[in-house]
Amino acid sequence: MSHSVYNIPVLTNSGEETTLNQYAGEVLLIVNVASKCGLTPQYEGLQKLYADQKTQGLEILAFPSNDFLAQEPGSDAEIQEFCSLNYQVSFPLFAKIPVVGEHKHPLYRTLIQAIPERIGEGPWWKDLVDYGLTPNNPPEVLWNFEKFLVNKQGEVVARFAPDLTAEDPRILDAIAAELAK
2 — alpha (psi -120 to 50), left (phi > 0) or beta? Predict the structure, then answer.
């Protein structure tokens, strides 16, 4: 299995240094997010999933990134405000990080090394190409709202394409399976 994500240093939305150790023993859904993306409405489903399953041991951890068409231009404070006002997000938001390229955050290096391929590549990839965009090939993160599932031991166990929403049975089944362990 992959190395644990727990000891990788991250910054909270307010700029405090921390690690994901505080979530040991919980199932994590790690998502790179953006406020000005066509997929931004996914915040709604993510918040509903969080509200439904937090008590069973699910944590959703959001990492804003400005790597895709500058769709997350705001400061960390602006991002927090946007998520609170527009989607009533109560799951943890972290400081903005790069998730692709040579400067990608060590957390994302670990995530993509653990699982290089995404589940659920849909027609959305072709839509990006049709818009004249150049989506990243695996193992790189394709776009905003790609999702990584981490088990209770901190190991990456699944990876989902950005266009799979929090309501997708493949995601819900994978979360349920990990919560049951």
Answer: beta
Instruction: Tell me whether the omega of the peptide bond preceding residue 41 falls within 30 degrees of 0, making it cis.
Output: no
Q: What is the DSSP letter of 163?
A: T
**Each residue of 58-89: pLDDT tens digit?**
999 999 999 999 999 999 999 999 999 999 99
The predicted model scores a pTM of: 0.96
Task: Say if 80 falls within a structural domain.
Answer: yes
Q: Show the domain range for 97.
A: 10-180
Catalytic residue at 37? yes
Residue 167 is predicted with a pLDDT of 96
Catalytic entry in 11, 37, 172, 179: 37
For residues 92 and 83, give the distance between their C-alpha atoms in angstroms, rounded to a whole number: 11
Within a domain: 4: no
Q: Is residue 37 part of a domain?
A: yes
Task: Give me the number of domains the chain comprises.
Answer: 1
